[in-house]
Amino acid sequence: MSEAVVLVHQQGPVRTLTLNRPASLNAFTTAMHGELLAALDAAAADAATRAVILTGAGRGFCAGQDLMDPAMVSTGAVAELDVGAVIERHYRPLAQRLFSMPVPVVAAVNGVAAGAGANVAIGCDMVLAARSASFIQAFSRIGLVPDAGGSWLLPRLVGRARAIGLAMTGDKLSAEDAERFGLIWKCVDDAALMDSAMALATKLAAMPSRALAETRRVIDTSMKLSLSEAVTLEADTQRELGRSHDFAEGVAAFIAKRPAVFKDR
Fold first, then answer.
1. What is the pLDDT at residue 131?
2. Pick from 216, 220, 249, 241: nearest CA to 51
3. Is the pTM for the entire model greater than 0.85?
4. Contact predicate 5/32, CB 8 Å
5. All domains of the chain in start order, with CATH
6. Rounded mean pLDDT of the chain?
């Protein structure tokens, strides 16, 4: 049997998913798409999993779509590839799965994150990148536009000017500049990447998962609302969360000056 192209490892409440095609810098294939989506679905369905780390094996996070994946182009001719169909079939469900996870997802970016790989990374809730890592909107180099949610994410993270600059030039962005631009949460030393990702994921796993997932939803939704509509969304969401176990537990723990034990998900 061939080795899995997505490795799954559980450590307490944290599940680590590792893209595992290191010889190809973990470029996406049909098989990888299927395994990654299934692994994310499984993590979402497992009540014992309260945070997820997404990373890559070897010297890169993900080089984007493997255009020569035999399952994509049966004849080996790139010209016969329907790129739009690939997005609809694979990247839309992947982006929507990341944006709807019931627990936080932390990307640990080791090495290059290019094309769709870069946009899958920044589609996670929080991104840690090794100092040697880089982000490349490589689409213009092959006559395409940002996909995998990148056209939506980039301007919201770094602003229109930088989004257009990164997308049009296809220039490599260092991890340090990615942090400075606001594209990622934090740049860390290479040797500290996975320990830092695990520490962050463990911290998030101990927090109220449902409230964290709702925080993501409210922030993303509010980007297209008026102030009045956003406050209404906040009120509606607080009303629901205010009836939850975790709110009652959080308040009780605060009053009693003890650690809270959150259970909702």
1. 98
2. 216
3. yes
4. yes
5. 6-205 (3.90.226.10), 209-256 (no CATH)
6. 94
